[in-house]
Amino acid sequence: MPAPFERGHRRCALLLALAIALMLSACSAESLSRQRPAPSQTPHPTIAPSPRPRILSSDELYPAADSAAGETSRSYASLPPGAVLPPAPSGESAFGVRVVLDARTVLRGNLFQSGSQLAPGILILGADLGAWGSLPAQLAEAGNIVLALETAPTSQARQIEAMLQSLIAIPGVDAGSLGVLGAAEAADLALLGCAVNSLCDALALLSPLSRDTLLNMLPTYGARPLLLMASRADSAAFETAQALRRSALGEAELLEADAGRGAAMLQAQPALSRHMQNWFQRQLTNR
To answer: Which CATH fold topology does 70-285 show?
Structure first.
């Protein structure tokens, strides 16, 4: 066979092979395109909005007004750890409030506030709200925000922290200027709680009773000012007050009454109330 004819035959074979390859490639592409799903026409998914937080009402935060102190507050258990609730109106009087300390403790109290400006706060502790007479209102008229709470024999010194935090939560209270006043068993409670809590800036004790226990905690209270009041007729309280004054690390003053224990001394000798008002005024406003 001549050489030119052989070259032409090879050229035709190559062209035929190339044509077959192109046809196979086209078929393969068409097959793949049929297998590939069509692009989605739906828009990109959006992020769902965050759920709106549920804000509890005052009825949910606090037990019913006719509930007894010391009951379980189911609402408190649902709050974050360390949450503090401010005093809420109790409906018992124009000044009546209730303070939730923890899931099992609710205290009755009275709240007195005469102004809207930043003011020192005074926490009053005792077994009977009525025993204080007009003293809480007078302290408020002097420019303080006063929260008087009715403590119980089961009240614990560690609960002083929650009481003070509730006082601070009241709008207008100056957290850097806080005084505490306690009577009889509540006086012991006040010193034991304030000794380990730096929020207490000044402490007044009426008829303190637990001499040895209080003397052991007095160094922890440090050099913060201390006002003591006891009746000479109440030997246990008078001896305890004298021992605390002698052992105090800072300013300590002892007022002697003629009779009575705790808040009863103030009713019998109004001059003691006036002296206490002036003392708190000096300690809390001149810091």
So the answer is: Rossmann fold (3.40.50)
